[in-house]
């Protein structure tokens, strides 16, 4: 299954999601590695098997094996960090913010691809997982690396549409 096949699974009541998947797949503000890494890391963050398989098929000839592994790593590490740092953000006790995280995050230092691309994918996953602290941290890194606000917005748009596609498919699967 590809993005086109995924679009075919989106029912008419979610036509906007279907149209947005198509337009974002053709987006040119991000290079292919950045764009498809956002798609894949976002798909992994949703946990929806249909979406993950569709995006995985789409990226197979568009991303290097190293970039695919890095997108997987971004989804994995943010799955952990988004929970922890959202906890820090939401708790009223400031003591927790003074304690070391004591969580291994080695991949952040050496993701195997351009650091800015990895950070962009981490930002997309953080948007799906709703961690404001992580969104702010990753946005600052990619902006410092020279990415524009439009590039950051595109990553967030990809994350939002992939998450919506997963929600629609989950809902449809639950109804059948």
UniProtKB/TrEMBL annotation:
Pfam family name, one: CMD
Gene Ontology MF term list: disulfide oxidoreductase activity; hydroperoxide reductase activity; peroxiredoxin activity
Disulfide links within the chain: 131-134
Residue ranges occupied by any Carboxymuconolactone decarboxylase-like domain in the UniProt entry: 95-169
InterPro entries: AhpD (IPR004674), AhpD-like (IPR029032), AhpD_core (IPR004675), CMD-like (IPR003779)
Swiss-Prot/TrEMBL catalytic activity: N(6)-[(R)-dihydrolipoyl]-L-lysyl-[lipoyl-carrier protein] + a hydroperoxide = N(6)-[(R)-lipoyl]-L-lysyl-[lipoyl-carrier protein] + an alcohol + H2O
The UniProt record lists the keyword Lipid metabolism: no
Family matches, as HAMAP family: AhpD (MF_01676)
Similarity field: Belongs to the AhpD family.
Protein name as annotated: Alkyl hydroperoxide reductase AhpD
